[in-house]
Each structure stands twice: as C-alpha cells, then as structure tokens.
Amino acid sequence: MDIDSLAASQGFTTEEFLEIVDVFIDVSRSDVVRMTEAIENQDAATAGDAAHSLKGAAGNLGFFDLFDAAKKAETQAKSNDLGQARETLSHVRDMVEAIARDVRHKDAAP
C-alpha cells in the first residue's frame, strides 16, 4: 500500500494521514468486534450497522478494497445471511490488520 499516495490523494501530508489512519484502525477494530459479537448473538441489524460504519470510514480514506468487503458484509448482514457475513468478516478483519501493519511499517521507516 502506498501510504504517501493515499495521503496526497486525500489532501494530507503523510504524517497527518498516518494520525488519521491510527484512529481509523482503532475504530475499525471496534467495529469488527461489534460485528463479531452481533453475528454470534444473531443480531443482523447491529452487524449491518457496524459493517456500514467501517465501510464509510474505509471509503473516505481511500481503502476501497476494504470498502468493498465491508459493503458485502453489510449487505449479507442486512439480508440476515449471518453465515456468509461471518466469512466476509474474516476477510474484513484481515484487511484492517494489513492496513495496521502497513502503517506500523511506515511509522518505523526512517
């Protein structure tokens, strides 16, 4: 992931963008936990709401693959297809953690 290009496309310096993405990661992880718990509790509405939240934030920051995956999870949850939403959630979780790794790597770069 090219953090510098993403930052520039959003009108931020790389440092500003990394600060925003740090908050995004925290909120996204919370949304993933909320989705996981909602799916376990058969609460399709809450799972869909959490996916919707993550989808919007991902889209606003230019993480379009994550946006697409969260949109899929949202649609599945709101259709009460929690089995498929659970599978998609695994992919969403992996994508959030990949972004976190990329940001950590960028923060550690000289």
Write up what this structure looks like:
The structure is a single chain. Helix 1 (3-9) crosses helix 2 (14-40). This protein has one domain: Four Helix Bundle (Hemerythrin (Met), subunit A). It has helices at 3-9, 14-40, 44-61, 64-78, 82-108. Helix content is 85%, strand content 0%. The protein is mainly α and 110 residues long.
Please give the share of residues in helix.
Answer: over 70%
CATH architecture: Up-down Bundle
Question: What is the CATH H-level superfamily?
Answer: HPT domain
CATH class call: Mainly Alpha
Pfam families: Hpt
GO molecular function, one term: protein kinase activity
Domain HPt: 13-110
Keywords: Phosphoprotein
Gist of the model:
The chain has 110 residues and is mostly helical. The chain has helices at 3-9, 14-40, 44-61, 64-78, 82-108.
Using brief descriptors, characterize the structure shown.
single chain; 110 residues; mainly alpha; Four Helix Bundle (Hemerythrin (Met), subunit A); 5 helices; 85% helix; elongated
